[in-house]
Amino acid sequence: MTKAFSTATSLGALGGLTRVRQFSQDDAHLFCTEAQIVDEAAGCLKLVEKVYGAVGLAYSAKLSTVPAGFLGGEAIARKAEAALKEVLAREKIEFVLDQGDGAFYGPKIDIEVTDSLKRKWQCATIQLDFVLPQRFGLTYIGEDGAEHTPGVIHRAIYGSFERFIAILIEHFAGVFPTWLAPVQARILTVSDKFLGYGREVRDLLAARGLRSSSTRRATSSGQDPRGGDGEDSLFGRRRREGKRQRAVSPRKHGARI
């Protein structure tokens, strides 16, 4: 589930996509029995590992305990903290204990990612809440036939989509992995007479599932036909004149001819 949030961030504090006045978050609320909490929270951590591992972002974990003035009582707070500690231990994830930085309704596991410039950003969060179900009078019938109050896990894997996108752009310096690049291949023709063949190659790549585009880079002899290096494509393909008029010369982004 995606939610949009608005903030009253002052103009001077805004910064690119990392600090915006409205952002979207992949917020989810998992209602579960006490016996299911550890497994469900562990599943959230596995999803974090899958998502961040796919884009090569290193991350670390913090266990933030409830702050002063928390709701629900001491027993509920300690039970929730013990459950999250059990999850981290089971998944063999090292963590730093952050006293009092949790939510007013319960403790949380915060995930910080480290970008290519060694800066840390708080992104994913997994929060355990026994207060909300109590306040709404939520119950379920347990195996013993009696009513019980469930727990709820509030979780976001990306956190703010805008901030996550900004982190990825800077982490990869705009040169994304092929699967993530907006344009995966750009077809560059050296003269107008090869435009038709350039479109054929573009359509062939598109049929194979590649996001590709074609453009004309007409050059005279002696000019460098390497146009497109400054653009966000991962592979350039050039048409060559001469005897091999239908030849394709693949070139990886940033490579020299």
Characterize the structure shown:
The chain is α+β, with helices and mostly antiparallel strands and 257 residues long. The chain folds into two domains: 3-171, BirA Bifunctional Protein, domain 2 (2-Layer Sandwich), CATH 3.30.930.10; 183-252, no CATH class. It is 25% helix and 32% strand. The protein has helices at residues 37-54, 74-90, 131-135, 161-171, 195-207; strands at 3-6, 22-32, 58-64, 95-98, 108-114, 120-129, 140-141, 147-148, 151-160, 183-189, 212-216, 233-239, 248-252. Strand 5 (108-114) and strand 6 form a beta hairpin. Helix 1 crosses helix 2. Mean pLDDT is 81; it is low at 218-227.
CATH superfamily membership of the largest domain, which one?
Bira Bifunctional Protein, Domain 2
Shape: elongated
Query: Compute the gyration radius: what is it?
Result: 26 Å
CATH class of the largest domain: Alpha Beta
Q: How widely separated are the two ends? A: 46 Å
The H-and-E topology, N to C, reads as EEHEHEEEHEEEHEHEEE
Biggest sheet features: 7 strands, mixed
Contiguous low-pLDDT stretches (5 residues minimum) are: 218-227
Number of DSSP E strands: 13
CATH topology of the largest domain: BirA Bifunctional Protein, domain 2
What do the pLDDT scores average to?
Answer: 81
